Amino acid sequence: MTYSWLGALPLALTFAACGGGEKPRAAASGGDLLTIGYDREPDTMNRYATHILEDIESCVVEGLVVNDEKMNIIPVLALEVPSTGNGSVILRPDGGMDVTWKLRAGVKWHDGVPHTSADVKFTVDAINKGDWKPESVDGFDRIESVDTPDSLTAVVHYREVYAPYRLQFVRGTLPKHLLDGKNIDAATDYNRKPLGTGPYRVIEWKTGEYILLEGVPNYWRGAEFPKIKRLLFKFLPNTTTRINQLKSGEVQLVALVPWDKVRELRGLPNVRLNQVVGNGYEHVTLNQKRFTPFADIAVRRAMAHAVDRDLIVNTLLDSLVTVVNGPIQPLSSAYEKNVTTYPYDPSRARALLDSAGWVTGADGIRAKAGKRLAFTLITQSGFAIRENVSQALQKQFRDVGIDASVRLIDGTSISSVWFKGDFDAMLHWWQQGADPEMTLFFASDRMPPAGRNINYFKDDSLTAMLYASDRTADEAQRITLLKAAQQRLAVLIPELPLYNTAKIDAVPARLQGFTGNPTNAGPFWNVYQWQLTAR
Amino acid sequence: MIRFVLRRLAQSVPLLLVISLLIFALIHAAPGGPLSTYLENPNVRPEDIERLRRAMGLDRPLGMQYLSWLWAFVRGDWGFSYADGRPVLDRLLERVPATLELIGVACVMALIAAVPVGIMAAVNRRFDRVSSLFAVAGISLPVFWFGLLLQLVFAGALGWLPSSGRASFDGGDFADRVAHLLLPATVLAAALSAAWSRYLRRAMRDTVARPFIRAARSRGLSERTLLLHHALPNALPTFVTVVLLDVSMMASGAVVTESIFAWPGIGSLFTEALGKRDYAVLMAFLMCGSVAVMVLNLVADLAVHALDPRTRDAA
Q1: CA dist., res. A320 & res. A334, Å (int)
Q2: Could you give the C-alpha distances from A304 to A202, A268, A493, in angstroms and in order?
Q3: Residue A66 has what pLDDT?
């Protein structure tokens, strides 16, 4: 074995001395090229069909609107965002609604064909035709028809009021002139190199290695955009490899740096860490159907008081995140700050359990009518911080007489476990959509498979508020309802909110215009503005 | 000889059938499925999940799914990837060259290291002790740890070699490709050469101890001639069998190495497909792996047949 690996190292040194390895570093440092270490290879570049974040796609295919870094909805290919206030949303007496989209003039697909309302209509028709596999048909399935009175106006007729209508075309439109009459699932040319209106187009997709994008010459925002000529997305699924490449300069940008890697990136001279408040929250789901003591509100409140969230955030999470008290996150327009909170107070937790009849047994664990307060807390394996947080929770619950045994489950398996309701409690997060809808998660009739109410929690008044918020097109009224729903949730505390899922991106120190983004629009939403300044 | 090959091929058909059934059962027994990734996404409604389940044919009974897969597979239709909708055959074939390149180079590197070390260890006791120490290290080093260590040293600290990928996107000349290949090939070669050198040492020792070597030595042959022309050919059949069996295992991709070094081979495709429970790709990949093991087993038998005259007489 002397020559096995040790024998190979001198060989490596010899080749290295020939200078073969210098290229990537030099290539990555040019001002006209930005190299991104991306954690996975996209399944498809079709924004409607992909089921991963649309970072790369959004550089090529633009939405009619986009969420900015503050989660405001701002127009892109639309001239303005429709609303009841500007007269572009009309509620019909039959209970339906009409939304008028005015498109920006002068926008062309990359092949020179104008982008028109016919493309909007084609997109709706194609998705509703049902002969291919878009990821989600949400909202589209409520559209009756689309009228195109002129080439820049599309009137979308909904059968019923659909509150998130403003985000209906956040994934853009499909080019009618290219895809009409085609099987979109099998349209490999489009799905690998989509035709868009955005600042970049796909030059090369080398399977398993990278996607190279190049700025289009006549981008509609002006010839000065995009400022960076080429973007190279290298697929680096291994987190350590991605971080190593960032350190070695082979890649310059890594989006969504895992929190436990932030420390080793601090102080790197060419790297800036950009942090935004996330649109998701880590929490403990309490499955009332499987572990019935969770149906006792005293138990839930006691558990909330038993958890020292500040300690967890300040130690295990290096203060990178902030404690939150509910599912709607601070950047959302529907966020309600004034809700019931449960500060860390173990003696209060004990008192609550005592008064509810949960008596401490000889083993230190409480029980009532023969049922012990002992459950299994599942969480994702290989997610170092979560594994640590689950142990901290275990200790803190134990301090008030509640026994939680931790079980780790791999990332792919865990979703099917919770979807079947096959768990007692789960430490995880929800990454929310840009729209603040909560019905899917908390309405009484939205337990799996009809939704994601995996607390299996029922409250008629909350459910009524949530459905009412879905059925109003008036944004102010909707926010009022959602704020009331958050207050109700905090009182009933069906799950234990822990902290906001801050998003941290590592970007070159000399990159300007980068803001990050808390929503699934991803940090590339304004990529046309990015600029690498001289060293 | 031809009858032997034909008999072996005929035997492999029922075996492959059983393997396919086992693989199918195992990958479906694992929790989760191709739709698991959709569950986390709040934009994908329960109605969407049902629609996709039907569209992907996942709502049919498992037995039916297996039979329709088998029928299509034997007709050469390997189906479409659940993850990206492209033909499975295309997805596999585009990855094969990278894997062959990596495995080929790693095997050559491992052989170059293992053969001299194995021979010397067989005849020199002191060298044997030292080399066995390194062999144990080589076999025990976890690939993911050793790979990341090499990355940190040669790509990170020293900056001599690229840490991952198969070529620079705008480069791709010979030197660039060699530079990309070195680290992953070294990691693979390390474990292989460690094991192989020990096998060769053992085989050489057994051979050297046999009477015909003593007889040859008494005839005054030089040690060099004795080792290379008399002992080595007799030790080779065992060694070649081991090497070919190891290579057959690697034909299904150097899964961990490829993932660490973002090497675009079938091993990294397998990791990705496993994470997404892409049943179509997993079935095709595992079946190809099984066929490769069978074929290389047969090749190993034939190689021994060619190298060892005694087996020829027996046949």
Answers
A1: 24
A2: 49, 39, 8
A3: 96
Strands across the sheet with A359-360, in order?
Answer: A359-360, A366-368, A371-372
User: In degrees rounded to 5, what are phi and psi of residue B298?
Assistant: -65, -45
The length of chain B, given as a count of residues: 315
List of chain B residues whose C-beta atoms are within 8 Å of the C-beta of residue A437: 42
Nearest CA in chain B to A41: B272
Cβ atoms of A310 and A344 within 8 Å: the answer is yes
> Quick one: CA dihedral A417, A419, A425, A429, positive or negative?
positive
**Selected residues 242-281 of chain B with any CB under 8 Å from a CB in chain A:** 259-265, 268-269, 271-272, 274-277
Instruction: Give CA–CA dist B250/B100, Å, rounded.
Output: 10
Q: Return the CA Rg of chain B.
A: 24
Q: What is the pLDDT of residue A8?
A: 38
| Residue A125 structure tokens | 């028709």
**Backbone phi and psi for residue B225, each to the nearest 5 degrees, phi listed first:** -60, -40
What is the C-alpha separation between B117 and B113, in angstroms, rounded?
A: 6
- Decide: residue A347, CB within 10 A, 0-12 exposed, 13-18 middle, 19+ buried: exposed
The interface predicted TM-score (ipTM) is 0.77
Edge-first strand listing for the sheet containing A89-91: A89-91, A97-102, A153-158, A143-150
Q: Which two tokens stand for residue B111?
A: 């052989």
User: How much is the pLDDT for A449?
Assistant: 83
DSSP-based three-state secondary structure for B175: helix
Cβ-contact A433, A328 below 8 angstroms: no
Residues of A in contact with B31 (CB under 8 A): 409, 412-413, 416-417
Q: Give the residue with greater pLDDT, B233 vs A274.
A: A274
**Rounded CA gap, A69 and B181, in Å?**
41
Which are the contacts of B144, defined by CB distance < 8 A and separation ≥ 6? B256, B260
Q: Which token pair is B223?
A: 């040690």
Question: Quick one: chain B helix, strand, coil %, rounded to 5?
Answer: 75, 0, 20
Q: What is the CA radius of gyration of chain A?
A: 26
Rounded to 5 degrees, φ, ψ at A180 are -55, 130
Query: Is the distance from CB of A74 to CB of A92 less than 8 angstroms?
Result: no
Distance CA B242, CA B81 (A): 34
d(C-alpha A290, C-alpha B148), whole Å = 42
Of A277, A283, A106, A270, the residue nearest A197 (C-alpha): A106
Chain B partners of A407 at a C-beta cutoff of 8 Å?
none
Phi, psi of A228 (to 5 degrees): -95, 125
Per DSSP, chain A holds a count of helices (H) and strands (E) of 16, 23
Dist. CA B264–CA A422, nearest whole Å: 37
* Chain B residues with beta carbon closer than 8 angstroms to that of A41: 272
Cα–Cα distance, B155 to B170 (Å, whole number): 19
Query: In A345-422, where do the E strands start and end?
Result: 359-360, 366-368, 371-372, 374-380, 403-409
- Identity of residue A331: L
User: Cα(A523)–Cα(A238) distance, rounded to whole angstroms?
Assistant: 20
Backbone angles phi, psi at A146, to 5 degrees: -130, 130
Select from A1, A51, A232 the Cβ nearest to the Cβ of B38.
A51
Q: How confident is the model at residue A72 (pLDDT cuts 50, 70, 90)?
A: very high
Residue B299: both structure tokens together: 């090749």
Q: At what angle do helices B174-208 and B232-251 cross, to 10 degrees?
A: 130
* pLDDT attached to residue A15: 37
CA distance B148 to A247: 13
Q: What is the mean pLDDT of chain A?
A: 90
- Chain A nearest CA to B93, separation (Å): 11
Per-position DSSP letters for A253-279, written without gaps between them: EESS--GGGHHHHTT-TTEEEEEE--S
DSSP code of residue A532: E
Q: Is A144 helix (H, G, I), strand (E, B) or coil?
A: strand
Q: Which pLDDT does position B252 carry in this prediction?
A: 56
